[in-house]
Amino acid sequence: MRDHPWFGDEHLTLPLPAPQIRDVVRREIRDTGVPPRDALPAAPFVIPRCSYRELFHIANVLLDLLRRTVLHLGVSTEGRLAALGTTREDYPLFLDDLFLEERYAACMARPDVVVGATGPKFLEFNVSGAVGGPVEAHCLQRAWHFLEHRTHHSRLCYDDPFAARAWLFRAVCGELDLPPRLAWVGSTRDLYHTDSTRYFDLELDYLHRQGFVADHFEPEELATALDAGLPNGYSAGLRHFTIPEWRELGIDTAPVAQALKTGCLLLSPQTSALLANKKTLGLISEGQPWMSKAEQQVVDDYVPWTRVLGDRQVTREADTIELGPFTLEHQEHLVLKRGIGMKGLQVVLGRDCSPEQWSDHVHTAITAGDSVVQDYVEPGRCRLDISWSEDSRVQPEQVAPVLSPFLFGGRRGGLWARFFATGQTGVISREGYGAMENVVLTTA
Fold it and tell me: What's the count of helices (H) and strands (E) in the chain, helices before strands?
């Protein structure tokens, strides 16, 4: 099987023993929540510079359209929630300052992209301070940088997510005239496969070297700090959690709400979650009256046909269709996604269902009004060297990666990837379905 042309023909094979490569990769990603694997990547993905730049350019364009779409839904938070068919129960931690909500709603994002027959297709946007991957990507970048230098052949480059996020916080502190004191609010309880604080410590150490005062707070520690009056010294910080995960774990968000009340700006603000709602992506796919023809063309080229599911008429190419019956009749080519979801667990591929199961899912979603239907995109493949733990050899495999560019204040923050080592396709998610991960580098 040949590589999809978009990936180019640049393949990196490190001339080092497989056990040595595995040892370096494991050392770097230890205690970051990456699960133990029978296989590990033996090299990074490498794509042409033009492909690398294309992903980040289009990601920024689409992220801006998502933000503008949410702002056009209503002049108030309540109006926007109503337009998306949701409430403050789903999104409980809004700032009192609507300007700050709007100003920084898109400050951190990670879209998920597959390369289809005609090029990259943006399947969804994760917009949050808790997007997964920056720490793991930073560690994998360090591993490949170290190994590449061991071969005396350094010719690849990348954007470090830690550097981009530090740049964002320096810009925010400068814009708002805040001291560079940051609270990293998150819990080791919602990290997978580890209870170590190394996941947080790595980035905090980086921030310290950049001149920030930065500390990690478990939510209970944040409450103690509030009682002591310490948050007056923390002007901003990272909101490294999601409401659904903390609810599952029984973690109280009240200390966070109180920190926000005291003026600690935790990014991203709650409005970011409205941008991430898949119904918002459906709205830009359907088109908005304020969008220019050029903007609509970008959406048509880079976003698979996506519609908010309901008993209604919509356009598909030049035709008007009844969306409910169309969705039932074309399950092999469609994907059903709940508007609020994560880890791929609220995603149903029509091709993986019986007709009866698909019908049940579709009717439930129509009744709830909480989902979108999207064209399934068959992902293109590329070669990657894989190191299997029971073998001393490196084996090239054809894999179908999901690509995830990190954006921090519009700045490039590296390119993460998840894939199955066996080359299978479907819903590709690390925690939901056990996918592997790697980073994507580009030529200098």
Answer: 16, 20
Strands 236-239 and 181-185, by their bridges, are: parallel
Q: Any bridge partners for residue 438, and if so which?
A: 417
Tell me the two tokens of residue 220.
Answer: 């209970």
pLDDT tens-place string over residues 114-161: 999 999 999 999 999 999 999 999 999 999 999 988 776 667 899 999
Q: Which residues 6+ apart lie within 8 Å of 390 measured at CB?
A: 38
Measured CA to CA, the distance from residue 112 to residue 125 in angstroms comes to 6
Residue at 129: amino acid letter: G
Buried b (16+ CB within 10 A) or exposed e, 233-268: ebbbbbbbbbbeebeeeebebebbeebbeeebbbbb
Separation between Cα atoms, residue 83 and residue 102, nearest integer Å: 17
Q: Which helix or strand (DSSP H or E) is residue 201 part of?
A: helix 198-209
Beta strands, E only, 129-209: 156-157, 181-185
What's the Rg (C-alpha) of the chain? 22
Handedness of CA 134, 176, 67, 238 (dihedral sign): positive
Please name which of 7, 15, 5, 9 lies closest in space to residue 42, comparing C-alpha atoms. Answer: 15
Our CA angle for 110, 116, 118, nearest 5°, is 115
Q: Is 388 helix (H, G, I), strand (E, B) or coil?
A: strand
pLDDT for 7-64, tens place per residue?
Answer: 998 888 888 999 999 999 999 999 987 888 888 999 999 999 999 999 999 999 999 9
For 260, the token pair is 């926000």
